[in-house]
Automatic annotation (TrEMBL):
Protein name as it appears in the record: Sulfotransferase family protein
InterPro entries attached to this UniProt entry: P-loop_NTPase (IPR027417)
Domain of life: Bacteria
Native source organism of the sequence: Roseovarius rhodophyticola
Lineage of the species this protein comes from: Bacteria, Pseudomonadati, Pseudomonadota, Alphaproteobacteria, Rhodobacterales
Length: 259
C-alpha cells in the first residue's frame, strides 16, 4: 500500500490554528488529527508537561510512539493533516521523523496570543500560569531553523494575513504545500466541535468562537497593546517577539495572492 503525504501545521496556542484545522476538516480529502502529540505530552505515561495531569485525565495508552504509528497508519489510507505544537515533539526530531512530514507553520503576534490566553484563563477561573516553552514560540523557530538548515524550509502563514483575506491566503497556503484549494471548505455550520476537544472538553472556554462561527470570513486587522496585558503575561512578550520577528519576514505574503 502506498504512503500518502502527512501534512503538519505547527502552531502556537491561541493562534487561530483550530479554526484553520476546522477548515481543513471541511475539505473531506484529509484524515485530520487535532494536537495528537499534545495528549502524550500532557496526559500520557511519558508526559513532559511541567504540571502532571490529574489522575482522571491520564491516558496510559497515549505514548509518543503509538501516536506517531497511528498517524503513519492513517497515511496508508489517505493524505493526513495534523495540527500540533512544536514543543510537543521537539524530542522526536530525528531525520526519519522530519523527512516523513510536509511541514508548515502558523504564526501570530505574541500580544494577541497572550491576550487570548488571558481571556481563556479568566473564563476557566485559572491562574495565568505556564512555562514559556509550552507556548511554543521558541520551539517554532527552532523547528523552522532546523528544517531550513536541512534544505527544507517550510511555508509560514501569519494569522493576521489569513484572517484579513482567508480566501486569498488559504489559496497561497494550499499552493505552497501542494494541495488543491477548495473554496467550500471555508464555510461551515455553527455547532459543537467535539473533534477538537481532547483535554478537558470545555468548548465554552477554548473554542466558543469556533463553535459559534460559520466559516473563515475576512476580519479587519486589530492592534493589541502588550502594555495592556497583566504584568505576569507582558513579561513574556519581548521573549516571544524575538522569535516571531525572525519568522514573520519569511512568511507567505498577501501579494502572492493571484486571481
Amino acid at each position: 500500500m502506498s504512503e500518502h503525504p502527512i501534512y503538519f501545521l505547527w502552531a502556537t496556542p491561541r493562534s487561530t490554528s483550530t479554526a484553520f484545522e476546522w477548515m481543513m476538516r471541511q475539505r473531506g480529502d484529509l484524515i485530520c488529527f487535532h494536537e495528537p502529540f499534545g495528549m502524550a505530552w500532557y496526559q500520557g505515561p511519558e508526559a513532559r508537561a511541567p504540571r502532571p495531569a490529574p489522575v482522571d485525565r491520564q491516558r496510559p495508552e497515549a505514548t509518543f510512539e503509538k501516536i506517531w504509528n497511528d498517524i503513519q497508519d492513517a497515511a496508508e489510507k489517505r493524505p493526513v493533516f495534523v495540527k500540533d505544537m512544536p514543543h510537543h515533539t521537539d524530542h522526536l526530531w530525528s531525520d526519519a521523523f522530519l523527512d516523513r512530514i510536509t511541514h508548515s507553520f502558523l504564526i501570530r503576534d505574541p500580544a494577541k496570543v497572550l491576550a487570548s490566553l488571558h481571556r481563556s484563563y479568566q473564563k476557566a477561573g485559572m491562574e495565568d500560569g505556564f512555562e514559556p516553552h509550552e507556548i511554543s514560540f521558541g520551539p517554532q523557530q527552532d523547528l523552522f531553523d532546523t528544517l531550513k538548515a536541512r534544505g527544507a524550509a517550510a511555508p509560514i502563514l501569519d494569522s493576521d494575513d489569513m484572517l484579513e483575506d482567508p480566501d486569498g491566503m488559504v489559496r497561497v497556503y494550499c499552493d505552497a504545500i501542494g494541495i488543491p484549494f477548495i473554496s467550500d471548505a471555508l464555510s461551515w455550520e455553527p455547532g459543537a466541535r467535539d473533534d477538537v476537544l481532547w483535554y478537558d472538553g470545555n468548548d465554552e472556554i477554548w473554542h466558543a468562537s469556533l463553535r459559534d462561527s460559520d466559516g473563515l470570513k475576512p476580519m479587519p486587522r486589530k492592534h493589541v497593546d502588550p502594555g495592556d496585558l497583566p504584568p505576569n503575561l507582558s513579561a513574556h512578550y519581548d521573549r516571544f517577539m524575538k522569535h516571531y520577528t525572525v519568522l514573520y519576514p519569511q512568511r507567505l505574503r498577501p501579494e502572492m495572492v493571484t486571481g
